[in-house]
Amino acid sequence: MRFRGILRVLGLLICVFSVTLLPPAAVALYFGDGGGTAFMLAFAISLVIGFFVWYPNRSIHTDLKVRDGFLLTVLFWTVLGMVGVMPLWFAEELPLSFTDAVFESFSGLTTTGATVIQGIETLPHSLLFYRQQLQWLGGMGIIVLAVAIMPMLGIGGMQLYRAEIPGPQKDTKMTPRIADTAKHLWYIYVALTATCAFAYYLAGMNWFDAIGHAFSTIAVGGFSTYDASMGYFDSSTINTICVVFLLLSSINFALHYAAATNHSIMNYLRDPEVRAFLGIQAVLVFLVFATVLVHKEFADTGTAFNQAMFQAVSISTTAGFATTDFAAWPLFLPIMLIFASFIGGCASSTAGGLKVVRVVLLFRQGVRELNRLVHPAGVYSVKLGNRVLPQRVVEAVWGFFAAYALVFVVIMVGLLATGLDDITAFSATAACLNNLGPGLGDVAANYATIPDTAKWLLVAAMLFGRLEVFTILVLLTPTFWRS
């Protein structure tokens, strides 16, 4: 293990992240809200920390191996989350305990969207902007951003990219050089954000709210500048814009790149994961719409459809925006939507969950086993589209599912041990592991009232979900640490 090389990179990355504390300080200056002091203090401290981590190791130039990439990824997200705590903890306008500040920071950076803050709209503009920016940076992965500038620092990025990018096929690159791949990802990400912000503005938001909600929409995060979330605007047009961009952000970004370079949407139509994703969304919207219509939850059919479409897409893509209290909806809807968040979005998107491609492969592997029971001598393969997948890929998906389930059970049992009831423990674990945000029971509105021990467990769940379980679990194996 190249520990000094890892520390050199980590120090540089902390310095890069410290620069992201300056835009909220500029917002504080523009609005005169008095919140700039916390950000400037956090900037100075994080810059000093980064410098002293980097400086003793500045002369260490070595290529990172795969193991180094895993360790650096986990360290980076953990350290970055703790650096992100400082403005929240220092701000006099936001009296958070250290635990609550940690929870809020990791929730933002991992795009979970769970919050412990009540009275969000009373906060200074700088803090509101910072929360939204945290999600935007975490959405594509700050490491991918760092990989885009690593060539200037003399650091190769493929090992980081492999550890960070979500999905079962991590070696797929859009361009031959990893730095070019990261840059193209960010071009698409920024373009989607700018388009989304402009659409929100045209629909009636002011520029501050439009930019802030575009940040969390494209990140599939769910933070809002209001307690009532998207419900504050009470606009079917804004709801529809949000749904469109949530769907776009939940599709594999490599397909966006292909569509932009080939000037064609055929790649979307041919991709089996996208077809499955849109099919799942259509079924969820129909089920929610039919149920709320029968139970007369809304005054007219148009409102019922708009609300059903918004909540179904928001929860199932793991965004967690709200226009109404979906936990109070009739029959099976709340639990069904929580389970839908386990599927999440497509691989290499900003959405959380297991990812659609994995769920599709699990289903097809199940069908194959049923066919083998009927015809033991038959030869059946698992296909994705027209492509037969190697058995190694199928085994990896099953391994991932088993690890995901194990982490879920351990964290849920831990939450039960802190005194939470069954529904709260189940939904809180699902909401944080899937990077969803809102849950049921005591965490339907926010997470302020649950015990501190439970919050720390859920922070761990957010990290497991954001780094897709294996990236962290691999550090716990003895084999990883053997030379």
Would you write up a description of this structure?
- This protein is mainly alpha-helical and about 475 residues long.
- Helices cover about 65% and strands about 0% of the residues.
- The chain contains 22 helices and 2 strands.
- It has a two-stranded antiparallel sheet.
Name its key features.
483 residues; mainly alpha; two-stranded antiparallel ribbon; 22 helices; 2 strands; 65% helix
The count of strands amounts to: 2
Largest sheet: 2 strands, antiparallel
Oligomeric form? single chain
Shape: globular
Overall SS class: mainly alpha
Secondary structure tally, helices: 22
> Low-confidence parts lasting 5 or more residues at pLDDT below 50?
146-158
Determine the mean pLDDT.
88
Record the SSE blueprint.
Blueprint: H1 3-19, H2 22-31, H3 36-54, H4 66-90, H5 98-109, H6 125-140, H7 142-153, H8 158-164, H9 178-202, H10 207-218, H11 236-249, H12 253-262, H13 266-270, H14 272-294, H15 301-316, H16 333-343, H17 356-374, E1 383-384, E2 387-388, H18 391-417, H19 422-433, H20 452-466, H21 470-473, H22 478-481
Antiparallel strand pairs: 1-2
Helix pairs in contact: 1-3, 1-4, 2-3, 2-6, 3-4, 4-5, 4-8, 5-6, 5-20, 6-7, 6-10, 7-9, 9-10, 9-11, 9-12, 11-15, 14-15, 17-18, 18-19, 18-20, 19-20
